[in-house]
Write a structure and sequence with these properties.
The complex is a heterodimer of chains A (248) and B (119). By secondary structure, chain A is mainly α. Chain A contains ten helices and one strand, in the order H-H-H-H-E-H-H-H-H-H-H. The chains are: A mainly alpha (248), B alpha+beta (119).
């Protein structure tokens, strides 16, 4: 920022505004550290993949389990729902806390700290919301007036599907990334978060179009988590490459 | 419309105030404007980061920080990370408002200059 520091009077306002815009961009580049959350959550999503292998078949034919409340993130219809729920409870905590620790470490190293309070709030509400989602939707869909129940079923149908497929945790990750994108003013994070939501929207399409009726695929629901993992890891590699190029 | 003598009421006939009247001397100084712009982009910024970014000497930066802190536009926190002393600077809500007002005034000046190059 030598140009900005040149010992001169304030000068032309247009030049000053241009200098301030440049300096603002430099600070944003310095405080961006988004490779870690992308790679960490990408790895955590990829590691969860074996839990989505399901050899039995259509979930509609399986009785609902009575899983512990803390394992609710996995829904209650997949073969490994309870394991998925426990895994993601731990993974979300590790991912969110790890990201916060990473940003703090990064701030000490670089000298400029990203405000991460809203990210922490998004993580807490995301995990608690994910845990409460099943019982709340169940109550709204069955324990209220018919009109309300029908409206809830209609409006929240996509969320129901994600809940049943054990994919709510990935939605929590996506929301966290979008919050982080806003805090960091990062286009890459916003795109990654958006693509993650799109990949989640494709999961029900896969489940409904795969030939589950006659021959349940041996990979089960695996593709529903592999695509989000691929999105996160690809974005993480791009972020790492960009960071290296910027600070080279 | 007649304005009584001594009245400060602004009438349609009065020219709008020149944008320079909205500039704040405390904020308008080039380096102090830089400090506020950088701190507005982060939760907090370390002293050495500001010093390097603005290519100032430590003493010079300290003087600018003292002016801004005295005006309530920034908070300065001194502490240690391990054995290493650290000074962190964070912008206050008043600082954000002052920066926003300054940028608005500068933009108004640019606009006025574009409309009337001789102004």
């Amino acid at each position: 920022m030598v140009e900005f520091a040149r010992d001169r009077e304030t000068g032309h306002p247009e030049q000053l505004l241009a200098d301030l815009t440049r300096i603002r961009g430099a600070v944003r580049r310095d405080r961006q550290a988004n490779a870690f959350p992308l790679l960490a959550f990408g790895a955590l999503t990829l590691t969860s993949a074996p839990l989505y292998l399901d050899s039995i078949g259509p979930d509609t034919l399986r009785p609902q389990y009575e899983n512990p409340v803390l394992a609710a993130l996995g829904g209650d219809l997949l073969q490994n729902s309870e394991a998925i729920g426990w895994y993601w409870l731990a993974a979300l905590l590790v991912g969110y806390l790890g990201t916060l620790a990473w940003y703090r470490q990064r701030a000490l190293k670089v000298g400029v700290q990203t405000p991460t309070r809203n990210y922490l709030i998004a993580g807490i509400f995301g995990v608690l919301g994910g845990l409460a989602l099943g019982p709340v939707l169940q109550f709204l869909a069955t324990g209220t007036a018919t009109a309300v129940s029908e409206a809830v079923r209609l409006v929240f149908f996509p969320i129901y599907v994600l809940l049943n497929l054990g994919l709510i945790p990935v939605l929590v990750v996506a929301v966290g990334l979008l919050v982080l994108a806003r805090l960091e003013r990062s286009r890459l994070l916003a795109i990654a978060g958006g693509l993650l939501v799109v990949s989640l929207a494709l999961a029900p399409v896969y489940v409904n179009t795969a030939p589950f009726n006659d021959d349940f695929p041996s990979v089960g629901y695996l593709p529903t988590v592999l695509l989000p993992a691929l999105v996160l890891l690809t974005a993480g590699v791009v972020a790492t490459t960009r960071a290296r190029r910027t600070h080279a | 419309m007649t304005v009584p003598p001594g009245s400060s009421e602004v009438t349609d006939a009065d020219p709008p105030p020149h944008p320079t009247q909205a500039l704040d001397d405390t904020v308008h100084q080039r380096h102090r404007l830089g400090i506020l712009t950088i701190t507005a982009e982060a939760e907090r910024v370390e002293f050495t980061y500001l010093r390097d970014m603005l290519a100032l000497t430590g003493g010079n930066l300290s003087r600018h920080l003292a002016v801004l802190a005295e005006a309530g536009l920034i908070d300065v926190t001194k502490g240690y990370e391990g054995r290493r002393p650290r000074t962190w600077i964070a912008i206050t809500p008043a600082g954000r408002n002052a920066l926003a007002a300054e940028l608005r005034a500068l933009e108004a000046l640019v606009l006025r200059h574009r409309r009337k190059p001789d102004a």
